[in-house]
Amino acid sequence: MELLKHTALELGAMIAKGEISSADVTDAVFAAIEAKDKDVNAYIGLSEELAMSQASASDAAADGPLKGVPIAVKDNICTKGVKTTCASKMLADFVPPFDATVVEKLKAAGMPIVGKVNMDEFAMGSTSETSYFGAVKNPHDLTRVPGGSSGGAAATVAAGEAVCALGSDTGGSIRQPASYCGVTGFKPTYGYVSRYGLVAYASSLDQIGPIAKDVADCAAIMDVIAGHDGRDSTSLNVGHKSYLASLKGDVKGKTIGVPEECFGDGVDEDVKRAVLECAKTYESLGARLLPVKLDFMQSVIPTYYIIATAEASSNLSRYDGVKYGFRADKINSVDDLYAESRSQGFGAEVKMRILLGAFVLSSGYYDAYYKKALNVRDRIIAEFGEVFGRCDALICPVAPSTAPKLGASLSDSMSMYLSDIFTVPVNLAGLPGLSLPCGVDRGGMPIGAQLIGARGTDAALLDLGFAYQQATNIHRALAGRA
Ligand code: GLN
């Protein structure tokens, strides 16, 4: 299991030199899962046979720095022949007949897929407690949540049960669990990674990205998964230079904006302190810090929850018990078939969001809620544009607090939604966002700093994160590698 202390790139280099094989690492991953996952519950399903055969065949893949390195994949990303459940009873037995584009790319890069990681049902949540397959636990304290919705992806990397993972981020679901678990997570610019085969939650916000031990691993994974895809109509056709090769670690002359709204009331003192220290580190490395204002902050939660639920209500209408997914039995009419299959197949949080989404789209309320939210979204995009005219990046907390206790958020949805305040604006504007471990609170729980960049500045943002991780040790300490 010592092997799993290494980063994905270190393991890739050892495999390339012939010091170890892909099968050795993949074996070590399954041994770690066997030892630890009964406590953490990061996995919904394992694909051991497939992963071991991919490991043995990985030599044949095109050469790349991650060739042979195994990866875990969030269970809302379709894997051909391997169950993809979205952590829902609705899809508990769904076996996709095709691979998502990102999965095709992982396979082509010779990266064995060890299993499907746990999440909030249909990616709706911030704690990974709404999973039909049971809550995920935070490896730093098993009485706390790992964050969500990609809680399994972050927890498995933090627990050393996987080398790296793919998550998805609609309103923070890569960055916030990465922050709660003390690992690094990257949400790319909207359109940079194909959504083909990602089960849709809110299509105008969803984006797939990496969760790993450090920024360099995230950049290497981006090199594998980014790129134009004709099967995703929102995929951008831009040339992607190597993200890994762009890591230089030089921040001299960069201006980093510090939004004052992100350090006010409601943010834990420990979180403020750690994130401001991270900003100071940038200053000491040669960057200039610039106080900025983000006037839209007050409106981001309602705007996000109107748009996300509106899109979800439409995307989830396909689960009707007819084409695929859960079908209720002992049914007498078609209406009953729809009603019972959906009532029994979806959990409470998903149902609440479908109802909210249907409401904000209904005639009479459409203009007051949905249309207004779209207008506010435009203002958020414009205001970010103005700020990025003066800054290369922004720094703020990923979340106002560290990981709460299991069960604490389930009884208080409002405070759970409010905890997304610093992550959702990034999705509303389609920007890249990076979550970097930057300290621990007085209880020893990890704290994450978020770097936000203008659209398309993914390589520069990763480089900024890389500079911090070269100058500091916290990400290694939290991974037990210091
Ligand atoms: N917590 C947010 C939500 O529940 C974000 C989830 C996500 O990014 N998938 O919608």
Index terms:
16 helices, 482 residues, single chain, alpha/beta, 11-stranded mixed β-sheet, binds glutamine
Into which percentage range does the β-strand content fall?
Answer: 5-15%
Strand order of the largest sheet: 1-3-2-4-6-5-10-11-9-7-8
- The separation of the N and C termini measures 17 Å
Structural class: alpha/beta
Helix count? 16
Major sheet size, sense and barrel closure = 11 strands, mixed
Any idea what the radius of gyration is?
21 Å
Chain-averaged pLDDT:
96
Oligomer: single chain
What does this structure look like?
The protein is of the alpha/beta class. The protein is 38% helix and 12% strand. The protein has 16 helices and eleven strands. It has an eleven-stranded mixed β-sheet with strand order 1-3-2-4-6-5-10-11-9-7-8, sandwiched between helices. Strand 7, helix 8 (269-284) and strand 8 (288-292) form a beta-alpha-beta unit. Helix 2 packs antiparallel against helix 3. Bound molecules: glutamine. Glutamine (GLN) binds next to loops.
Describe what is shown at a glance:
This protein is α/β, with parallel strands linked by helices and 482 residues long. Helix 2 (22-40) packs antiparallel against helix 3 (48-57), helix 5 runs parallel beside helix 6 and helix 9 packs across helix 12. The radius of gyration is 21 Å and the shape is globular.
